[in-house]
Amino acid sequence: MQRIPVGRSGGTPGTRPPVLLQHGLLMDAITWLLLPPEQSLAFVLSDNGYDVWLVNSRGTKYSQGHTSLTPNDPAYWDWSWDELVAYDLPATIQYVHDQTGQNLHYVGHSQGTLMALAAFSKGEVLNMLRSAALLCPIAYMGQLTSPLAKDAADSFVAETVYWLGLNEFDPRGEAVVKLLKDICSKPGVDCTNLLTSFTGQNCCLNSSIVNIFLDHEPQPSATKNMVHLAQMIRQGTITMYDYGNAVENTQHYGQPTPPAYDMTSIPNDLPLFVSYGGEDALADVNDVKLLLGSLKDHDGDKLVVQYRDDYAHADYVMADNAKQDVYDPLIAFFRLQ
């Protein structure tokens, strides 16, 4: 984790309300620092009086430590987002809570929202939170429109990488680049702009920011995690990792099919700020509506839903108008909690 204890205006460290920022898939905490200082969410929060904590998920370049393994060990990569929900998210939230002595606000983007929603549905971490802001919420993925992601899921790309014995899914690695090229050569898949092929048509990216993004991202994940996400795309469900047969599932879960995460069990009084975009090819509008349907009994004064018809997946962390359009309303929401 990295921490920005005070902003440029100074202030007293330790008294400010803490905020934890959790990035998405194939990213790291630089997600929150890509824009200029007066526009990046991490700095904007800091300048607005918050104590900002940045998480880097396991396997990314700032988070490759381990008590006994190295990233060269297959066992190091034996995890999917189930483990991020069960271990990593509670550990990071607990750490910030212990260090600051305060309950915290949470901001997730993409997979960072999936981790939070799954944890909330199991009653995890709720006693340490003030509120949560979910940008591009991912719960259901059955209707995602990204041609690249859909094709990869339908052709079992992640599974193929896994069967080849590549436990680390490195988007810059030779094997993954070759598979991407194969998909991109298929009829109907246009990869002239690789970012757009994944995220949807972003409205508001300044061309220079894409170069900054590519200096730092994408970051590795576990191939097992990619397999898990592909299962969700193909099945339209939100369950734990499916080992693919009743025997192995029963060994892990005590039942022949993987247990589901029940979105309707998220407490109705948890303050939630949800923002999604009409052009997002990963957090598709129809999938977000499924999630919002699960939250239909949420207390009216505890749920703020923002819809931006021209935003896609990367706009939420890279758009030159994200501060005015998303971050300012998000901070106004935090102030009310």
UniProtKB/TrEMBL annotation:
Residues passing through the membrane, by range: none
Keyword flag Metal-binding: no
AB hydrolase-1 domain: residues covered: 17-163
Domain of life: Eukaryota
Pfam families to which the protein is assigned, alphabetical: Abhydrolase_1
PANTHER family noted in UniProt: LYSOSOMAL ACID LIPASE-RELATED
Keywords on record: Lipid degradation, Lipid metabolism
Annotated protein name in UniProt: AB hydrolase-1 domain-containing protein
Keyword Lipid metabolism on entry: yes
